[in-house]
Amino acid sequence: QVQLVESGGGLVQAGGSLRLSCAASGRTFSDYAVGWFRQAPGKEREFVSAITRNGQGAYFADSVRGRFTISRDNAKNTVYLHMNSLKPEDTAVYYCAAAIRPFASVYVRDYSQWGQGTQVTVSS
After folding, report:
1. Tens of pLDDT, residues 56-103
2. If we measure between CA atoms, which residue out of 80, 71, 70 comes closest to residue 23?
């Protein structure tokens, strides 16, 4: 298994940017595809973005495509979510998750390890 810790959340105004980081330890990071999910109060957890274990494939939810980017630095055991042009509807707790698979899944059930989450709040 791998342990994940998210950081970089905060309060920003609409149109602003944040970079979230997901730092991993405990296993070879390059073995894991990594996804980002978010959950707002009273809502179910939803897919945001994911990246394959070699970084060659990246996937985005329709709601964030064109605004968010994802990258990974396996030498640093870290995945980043770059969030631009933030909207109030992006407000949620953001989680990163890892899965031992060669592709990136959009499904919560496919991920075995989860971080603790980091709060992102976007004001109008």
Report:
1. 999 999 999 999 999 999 899 999 999 999 999 999 999 999 998 878
2. 80
From CA 74, how far away is CA 30, in angstroms rounded?
A: 6
* Residue-level pLDDT at 87: 98
65's CB contacts (< 8 A; 6+ apart) are none
What does the alpha-carbon distance between residue 34 and residue 80 come to, in Å, rounded to a whole number?
A: 10
* Close Cβ partners of 45 (under 8 Å, ≥ 6 residues apart): 37, 38, 39, 95, 108
The whole-angstrom separation of Cα 32 and Cα 52 is 7
Residue position matching structure tokens 């698979």: 101
